[in-house]
Design brief:
The protein is of the alpha+beta class. It is built from twelve helices and eight strands. The protein has two domains: 84 residues, Orthogonal Bundle (Arc Repressor Mutant, subunit A); 193 residues, no CATH class.
Amino acid sequence: MIEPVRLRIEAPASSGEALRRSILATVIYADLFDHALTREEVHRYLIGRAASAAAVAAMLDNDAELRGRIAPTEDRFHLKGRIQLANIRRQRLAASAGLWPVAKRYGAQIARLPFVRLVGVTGALAMDNARQHDDIDLFILAQPGRLWLCRLLVLGVVKLAARQGYVLCPNFFLSTDHLRLSERNLFTAHEVVQMVPLERNPWYGAFIEANGWVTDFLPNASARETAGPGSTKWLAARLAAGLLSARVFDPVERWEMRRKVRRLRRRLEREGGSVAFSEHECRGHFAAHDARILGGYRRRMAEYGQRIR
């Protein structure tokens, strides 16, 4: 497991100095994704320190020392010398706008499947920072005891989308009886607060409440507004869920879990990554993307003379 990355400001001379360092850390982290932040985003995703929107705005607008390291372009803030990020942001906003209808359409289909309790969009699209042909990353809450059968059904929609030229990546399944995440670091905290739920139901609020630890990293972040109405299960899906929830199908669930875990572990041996496979969780972040981001964050912070641990 990757060690939690926390911002530790060592004996700041003032609260202003601490806020300055937190803003710089926030812009550095966004830069790892080629992402220029609006002032509202700098406030929402401020790393390691709670502060009012007014205090953040005043620091961004008036602090000469901070302006020596970051700069605004078209009301978006980036590291000095990274003016191209404003153009990248425009391109990715347009690409994201094209992907959102796809995510909502297939997300609605997944939400109506048996055992699915919640569907959320994560990754680049959740931040409107996706490129035209990026995968659509999905987070799914599943009925306890049927997570792996739920995953099997979801993969049917994934294959349907692929035939239309869209890549859905449901890389995180979590059972609703184990909502508190085991992986707790800056990367995961961002994934939690950036997630955009595609429907209105109580499970999103329950998930956010269970993971209150994210405020250790991102104390200003709050729950997202849901992106659409609550879903209504198809009658066939309700009947199938009732039937397949019977204990007689427990061995089928265990068989599917063992079968898929064997395949996923072989992939892990080839690609590496940050994964967790159990009856309560299927998290397949292969190729160690989160480790690369956290490692890059440490190195970049060191370049700017900021210490974290």
